[in-house]
Amino acid sequence: MSNEAATVQTAEAAPGEETAPRRGLGASLPAADARAKTEGTFPYAADLWAEGLLWAAVLRSPHPHARIKSIDTTHAREMPGVRAVVTHEDVPGASVLGRGTADRPVFASEVVRHHGEPLAAVAADHPDTARMAAAAVIVEYEVLDPVTDPEQAFEAEPLHPDGNLIRHIPLRHGDADAVGEVVVEGLYRIGRQDPAPIGAEAGLAVPRPDGGVELYLASTDPHGDRDLAAAAFGLQQDQVKVVVTGVPGATADREDQSFQLPLGLLALKTGCPVKLAATREESFLGHTHRHPTLLRYRHHADAEGKLVKVEAQILLDAGAYAGTSSDALAAAVAFACGPYVVPHAFIEGWAVRTNNPPSGHVRGEGAMQVCAAYEAQMDKLAKKLGLDPAEVRLRNVMATGDVLPTGQTVTCPAPVAELLEAVRDVPLPPLPKDTPEDEWLLPGGPEGAGEPGAVRRGVGYGLGMVHMLGAEGADEVSTATVRVQNGVATVLCAAVETGQGFSTLARQIVQETLGVDEVHVVPVDTDQPPAGAGCRGRHTWVSGGAVERAAKMVRTQLLQPLAHKFGMSTELLQITDGKITSYDGVLSTTVTEALDGKELWATAQCRPHPTEPLDDAGQGDAFVGISFCAIRAVVDVDIELGSVRVVEMAVAQDVGRVLNPAQLAARIEAGVTQGLGAALTENLRTPRGLIRRPDLTGYALPTALDAPDIRIVKLVEERDVVAPFGAKSVSAVPVVTAPAAIASAVRAATGRPVNRLPIRPQAAVVTGN
């Protein structure tokens, strides 16, 4: 994978002279946990141990919808080695909880609403004993017909006391009677993508002498997990402590209460440490997934291809419980027209409950689904007008100062045209006839079936956008403390390192601000002030901003005595390469000398400007910060077999400022690859609400053989003045954009409409050739 634009340029050293490694912002520092992961010493939750450890197992429903007539735990309790069995009757606190909406029970009590819903949990002295005991719990069900079609949820009997409709957003912008000379319509379906974490989902609960409990979890939102746990356990928040163990990467998937709450209940009941290590099947059954979505679109344009009006209906399948579906729907409706200027927009959005598995946070929630649809519409518009697909997009792209359909003005940098032109103009990869036959891969892999004569090449485009922070009035705040003693800096911030690079960024910020080489980031737990969830790259903004402010306060403490001594302001002093100098050269000393014998510290918060909920017409300043991306996909399609090979993905992205070039490139490449999975292979099938083949053979993740050449052709560094460092998050928007670009390329290769993700082989087959 190439990464021309993100390479750090360093001056060449003179002969015989060594160059010191760069540090601070803009340098490619290695990930803080890279060595531990390489050496196998990284503290994953699955590796934890405690004296007197018991093992947990959870009994889950085999039905997507059933009435519970009875639960008999007698046989399970009597099994040798079993120490405790808990059901809904053993939940001492709130029995119904949730992150967005409190509607999800800790254990099902009267009704089962989805396949895999927890009914009981067991603690035993051996993991096999725990699993056998869980299987020995006898549940008598009255099986009910599941509601699995979200369109049927409007007329079906209520699946939940709160009803089937979670939220409806009717967005109204402009003149409803406006029409265009050219109209294109489409119906699109987006499948259920699973986060599929490679690392095992696991946790350890340890009871405390004061009646509380400590939870050791690979949590991405430790304070949120603590609050849910305290409510379920009937404890005060200070009686529950969440300690974040090593997170083996996360795409907003490590937030499900079905693992954590039974674990803590068992520890409190037995008075012993209890560990749970989920199997792959339990992971698929237990955590939330991307919202499957049905989208209907109608685009109006004039004869020149300029958009006049967009009409859309968006239906999100939330599964059995609301979770964060309201947030996903807000993003889907607000970004339903994409990064294009649309004078008139009328969007109807719904999120409904069904008996399908629960949906929740997955990178680019809401935005990814609508991107696939509106980009398909732009391809249809180009075809109907006889225009190049890139050209019709360029005629409509938004820029800074344009207005979203929500009425919010885009005040951040929005270099969408520059991004699209960058990917459009980069040279295309060579055609197979220009390369040796042994270097050419047929669609399907190195040993792909089919004939070269049946292969068609297609080029497609995708433009995507995501918001970077919580929306609709969410209080986005983070707190950080920076302490310097004996020449070593320590950062305390509850921002979880999920693979997005926050720990490395915190080191860079302190190195840049204070000129201190050795910087340690304290492991995260809930004794620290909250920093919020690790999603949408928000920690780069709010937590990085808090670290920067705290570091600058320490810098002032460090420089004030020197400035006072020489009769000047601290603003006239600078720290560079570990040295403190004045503007006139009178003062020159090292940071080490200035710190001698001192302990300096400061605590600071970062809270972006507030937002507001969308009103009854879908209007409001609901978002802080928007990130944009353009991708050109090149694919080879076997039009007889329907197999697709992605040859190259050219990416241009507005990043505000490059803080760590190598890390940024890795995040973009990872996002593109996750989007590739959503486009071609990842589809968690749930016929009649039952998760089919919950394993990594039935659920096909893209491998290294599937990953195309990812060319980062341009990174636009136009700083967002309201963001710390001017940087934007980078991980989510490639996930949003890549599936749309791949589908566009397959349309170009085959002439087929391609209105479903992931793309099924039959959608890429061309008959009559």
From TrEMBL:
Q: Which InterPro entries does the entry link to? A: Ald_Oxase/Xan_DH_a/b (IPR000674), Ald_Oxase/Xan_DH_a/b_sf (IPR036856), Ald_Oxase/xanthine_DH-like (IPR016208), AldOxase/xan_DH_MoCoBD1 (IPR008274), AldOxase/xan_DH_MoCoBD2 (IPR046867), AldOxase/xan_DH_Mopterin-bd_sf (IPR037165)
Identify the residues that the record assigns to the Aldehyde oxidase/xanthine dehydrogenase a/b hammerhead domain, covering every copy: 39-145
Please give the residue ranges the record annotates as the region Disordered. 1-32
What protein name is recorded for this chain?
A: Molybdopterin cofactor-binding domain-containing protein
**Highest rank taxon of the organism:** Bacteria
Q: Which organism is it from?
A: Streptomyces althioticus subsp. attaecolombicae
